[in-house]
Amino acid sequence: MAIKYSRQRQLIKDFLMTRKDHPTADVVYMNVRQKYPNISLGTVYRNLSLLSELGEIRRLRLGDGIDHYDADTSDHYHVICTQCGGVSDVKADGIGDILGNANIEYDGEIQGHVTYFYGICEKCLKYSRACCP
Questions:
Q1: 10-residue block means of pLDDT along the chain (133 residues)?
Q2: Which of 9, 25, 81, 101 is close enough to 47 for a disulfide, judged by CB 3.0 to 4.6 Å?
Q3: How many CB atoms lie within 10 A of CB 32?
Q4: What is the CATH architecture of 75-133?
């Protein structure tokens, strides 16, 4: 699908490429607005949706009702901090066996999977250790 170039879309994508924290649309909007003050929240939402449909970014649905976005479309996994809600990337090379095992057990065709890990991030661990030894 060929789409017309959009400066706003490019700014959104460029911003996401600088982030590893998987921001929400509101965070994207607040930051892109600093460079492009006339951009609307609706425009940000529409472009995030389009970019994810095109496979240029990843939309993460973490079960909290708020979509998060990731410019890294390579195969990788995410850890969600159960204390602060932060989302981090994690490399888990051996997890690919899950897809192979699922294909063995499933009579249909599995086309992908989403796996989230839950834990406590380094920042929250440091804080809890500092305040509550």
A1: 85 96 96 95 97 95 91 91 92 77 88 88 86 69
A2: 9
A3: 21
A4: 2-Layer Sandwich (3.30)
pLDDT tens, position by position, 12-21? 999 999 999 9
Of 49, 48, 128, which is closest to residue 81 (Cα–Cα)? 128
How much is the pTM?
A: 0.83
Residues in the chain: 133
**Beta strand spans in the chain (E):** 58-61, 67-70, 77-81, 87-90, 116-119
pLDDT of residue 64: 82
Q: How far apart are the C-alpha atoms of 21 and 8, rounded to whole Å?
A: 21
The class (CATH top level) of 1-74 is mainly alpha
Q: Where are the domains of the chain?
A: 1-74, 75-133
Q: How far apart are CA 83 and CA 60, in angstroms?
A: 18
Q: CA torsion, points 29, 59, 87, 61, in degrees to nearest 10?
A: 110
Q: Which residue has the tokens 């929250």?
A: 124
